[in-house]
Specification:
The chain has helices at residues 7-19, 23-33, 43-61, 69-82, 95-109, 119-126, 142-158, 273-286; strands spanning 85-88, 113-116, 131-137, 163-165, 173-175, 198-199, 233-236, 242-248, 251-257, 263-269. With 290 residues, it is of the alpha+beta class. A 6-stranded mixed beta sheet has the order 1-2-3-5-4-6, with helices on both faces. A 4-stranded antiparallel beta sheet has the order 7-8-9-10, covered by helices on one side. The longest helix is centred in the N-terminal third of the chain and has 19 residues, at 43-61. The protein is globular.
Length: 290
């Protein structure tokens, strides 16, 4: 077994350290990855590499003086937990598993809602890709889920985490890209007030009420025709094709523009539109879309 054959282990160790994994969890993961006897020859080198990266990361962290965005997210999730929202970071491998296990956690803890980001989200966050928060509610219906979403946004506001959300139950809450600095060994400093997030406009029937920055209801405006929301994702191919998708409640709407400029729209029903979208996007990227 060469180092190249075990390259994925070295890469994963690097990601785990950058993500802020605790020392115990790091070496538990290393042990699990090296369980196969075929890695026996490179095991000492992997463990040494993990120890070196951990020591370097620990020394760097002890020099952090300012509040990081990760500090603010940690504080917001802790606050949500106290308010009855099950909150988990780096939770399960993907969105589908996360929703399933979060439902179980709600039952065990008596929580009335949940919020999480999964391990693939963590990997994107470490690479300055921001985070996408998934959430849900014990009570049925999109209204209950949207209520939990608003609570999550309120908590992010309280601790100064900038966010964007369209206010709809089938869309994840986005935390804009930031420098990833998640603590493992040092204490979090006091967190000063931050800025509000942004709920993208979503006109409703009848007079539309808006909310000012202080949370006070402003005067109603005249009804307006609903504008089409921005797509959850848009990908383009070098040959001119364009692919866009919108997540809706229990459905995924897809718009495809071919090389001739013709546009085709499709809609498919699915239990977890975001998970379905993630899978399709991965396939399209493999096919040359970006």
């Amino acid at each position: 077994m060469s180092d190249d054959d075990a390259g994925w282990i070295f890469d994963h160790v690097k990601t785990l350290v950058r993500a802020g994994t605790t020392k115990k969890d790091l070496f538990d993961s290393v042990k699990a990855m090296l369980r196969d006897p075929k890695y026996d020859a490179v095991a000492p080198k992997v463990r040494g590499y993990a120890a070196k990266l951990w020591s370097r990361a620990e020394a760097e962290e002890r020099g952090w003086k300012d509040v990081s965005t990760n500090d603010r997210i940690d504080a917001a999730f802790e606050d949500l937990t106290k308010r009855g929202i099950f909150s988990a970071q780096n939770f399960t491998c993907c969105s589908s598993c996360g929703h399933s296990e979060a439902w179980g956690a709600m039952s065990e803890t008596g929580a009335r809602g949940y919020v999480f980001y999964h391990q693939q989200d963590t990997e994107r966050g470490v690479e300055n890709g921001g985070l996408m928060l998934a959430y849900g509610a014990r009570e049925d219906g999109p209204g209950a889920v949207e209520g939990v979403g608003r609570e999550i946004c309120d908590a992010l506001d309280r601790f100064g985490v900038p966010w964007t959300w369209n206010g709809k139950s089938d869309t994840r809450i986005e935390i804009e890209p930031f420098e990833w600095r998640k603590r493992c060994v040092s204490a979090r400093p006091p967190i000063p007030l931050g800025t509000r997030g942004v709920v993208l406009p979503r006109p409703e029937r009848g007079p539309a009420w808006t909310e000012d920055l202080d949370g006070e209801a402003a005067a109603p405006t005249e009804p307006v025709e609903p504008a089409e929301p921005l797509p959850a994702v848009t990908l383009r191919h070098a040959d001119g094709r364009e692919w866009s998708a919108w997540t809706e409640f229990n459905a995924l709407r897809i718009r495809i523009k071919d090389t001739d400029g013709d546009v085709i729209e499709r809609k498919r029903a699915c239990r977890d539109p975001r998970a379905e979208l993630d899978g399709i996007v991965a396939e399209l990227r493999a096919d040359g879309f970006s």
